[in-house]
Amino acid sequence: MKNKVFLWSITVALGGFLFGFDTAVISGAEQSIQQYWSLDGFAHGLTVSIALIGTIIGSMLGSIPSERLGRKNTLVIIAVLYLFSSLGTALATDWYVFLVFRFLGGIGVGASSVTAPVYISEISPAASRGKLVALFQFNIVFGILVSYLSNYLIGQEGDSPWRWMLGVQAAPSLLFLIMLRFVPESPRWLMIRKGDFNQAEKTFRIINPEGYKKEMELIRQDMQTMHTPGNETLFSRKNRFPVFLAVAFAVFNQVSGINAIIYYAPRIFEMTGLGKQSALLSSVGIGLVNFIFTLLALNFIDRVGRRTLMLIGSLGLITTLGLVSRAFYLNDFSGLAVTVFLLVYIAFFAFSQGAVIWVFISEIFPNTVRAKGQTLGSMTHWVMAAVIAFIFPMLTENLGGGNTFLFFCIMMVLQLIFVWKIMPETKGKSLEQLEGTLITHL
Predict the structure, then answer these.
(1) Other C-beta atoms within 10 Å of 36: how many?
(2) Residue 271 contacts by C-beta under 8 Å, 6 or more apart in sequence?
(3) Which of 134, 167, 250, 327 can bridge 381 by disulfide, Cβ–Cβ 3.0-4.6 Å?
C-alpha cells in the first residue's frame, strides 16, 4: 500500500523534474541563442525571462483547472505543455515562435508548482507527508542537475547544440504524460468538489488502510463547518496567518539570490576569472551539490521538522553570502574560494529553503482554499524570481558583485528572525489538525 502512494508521489513529482530542467536549461543555451538571432540586451533579457513571465501566469491561473477539472487532469495538461515547449523551442527558426514556446513551458512550470505539491500533500499520510511532498523539490534539483550535465555534454559538439539542449526535454515530458494514466484523482478533491465519497474511499483505503474512516470523517466535519465549497475567499480573516506565512516564505526564498545563481551560474563563475568550459563544469557542481543536499533534507524533514532545517539553513546562507560579498569587495578571486563558497551556499539552501518551501506552503492552508493558497505562494515565488533574474545582471553591473551579494546576505538575516520568531512547526500533524491551529493563530 505504501509503495503505491510512493509511486503516485514520484510520478507526480516528475512534474518537478521537468520544472527544474526547463528552468535551468536556458543557462547553457542563452549565449548561443543571443548570437543566433543577434539579440540586443533587452531582447536577450526577454528571451531568458519569458519563461518566468509564463511561470507567473501559470502559477496565477493554476488553481482554476486544479479546482474545476481536478488535480490529475491539470497535471495531464501540464505534461502536454512541457512536451510542446521542448519540441517547439528546439525546432524554432523564428525568434517570436521561440518566445511563444518558451512561454508555454513557463506556464507548465507555474501550474506544476501549484498542482503537484497540493496533490502529493492530499494523498500523503501525515507521518511521511514532508518526505513525499519534498520529492517534488528533489525532482526539481534532479532536473536542474540533469540539465546542467546535459548542457555540458551537448555543448561539446555540433553546430547548433542549443537546439539539442532544449529538445531532449521531450523524452521525460512524454514519460510523465504516460505515467499519469496510472495515478488516481486526489480523494480530498473528490469529496470536497465532486461529492464522490465512494471513489475517494477506494483511494483512502490504499493510503491509510487502518485509519481511513477517521480521516474521511474529519474531512466530512470540515465540509460541514465551511460555508460554500469552492467559493470561500482566501483573504478572509481566518486565513490571514497562513496567507502571511506563504507570502513571506516565498519572498525570502527568492531574495536569497538562488535563481540568480542558477540562471547565471556560468556567467558568475566567468566573472571570477574561470574559463568558459570550467564555468560550465562548475555549474554541474552546483547542480550536484543541490541534488545531494536535497536528498539529505528528505531524510530529516519529517524527523527534525521544517523549522529546524530553516534555522540551520538561514545561518549557513548568511555566512556564505557574506563570504562571497567579501571576495567581490576585495577582488579576491585567487584559487577556487568563490566557487567553494557558492557550492556551500547551495548546500545550505537545498537543505533548508529548497526542501521546505513547497512542503510548508502545501500544508498551511485549509482544505477549501488549499489550491488558492498554493497559487498565492507559488505566484509570489515566481514574481520575485522574475524580478531577481531580470535585475541581477543590472545590479552586478551597476552596484558590483559585493553590494549585490551583501543585499542577499541582509535578506537572510531577516529570514532568520522570521523563522525564529514566527514560523510554526507543521511536522507530524494531519492537514485537518493544522487547519485548526493555524486559522486560530491570529
Answers:
(1) 15
(2) 396, 401
(3) 250
Question: What DSSP element (H or E) covers 23?
Answer: helix 2-24
What pLDDT, on a 0 to 100 scale, did the predictor assign at position 169?
94
CB within 8 Å of 154: residues ≥ 6 apart? 28, 161, 164, 165, 168
Cell numbers standing for residue 363? 500544508
Model confidence over 397-413: pLDDT tens digits?
788 778 988 999 999 99
**248: its cell numbers:** 513571506
**Other CB atoms within 10 Å distance of the CB of residue 273:** 11
Cell of 316: 549557513
Top-ranked range on mean pLDDT: pick from 209-218, 256-265, 420-429 = 420-429
User: Which region holds residue 228: left if phi is over 0, alpha if psi is between -120 and 50, else beta?
Assistant: beta
User: How far are the Cα atoms of 241, 255, 374 from residue 3, in angstroms, in the given order?
Assistant: 35, 37, 26
pTM of the model: 0.82
Q: How far apart are CA 55 and CA 111, in angstroms?
A: 7
Q: What is the DSSP string of 210-254?
A: TTHHHHHHHHHHHHHHSSSTTT--TTSGGGHHHHHHHHHHHHHHH
Grid cell locating 132: 513525499
- Provide mean pLDDT across the span 252-271: 78
Alpha carbon 13 to its chain centroid, in Å, reads 11
Residue with cell 495531464: 76
- In the chain, the amino acid numbered 337 is A
pLDDT at site 335: 65
> Grid coordinates in use for 296?
539529505
DSSP 3-state assignment of 273? coil
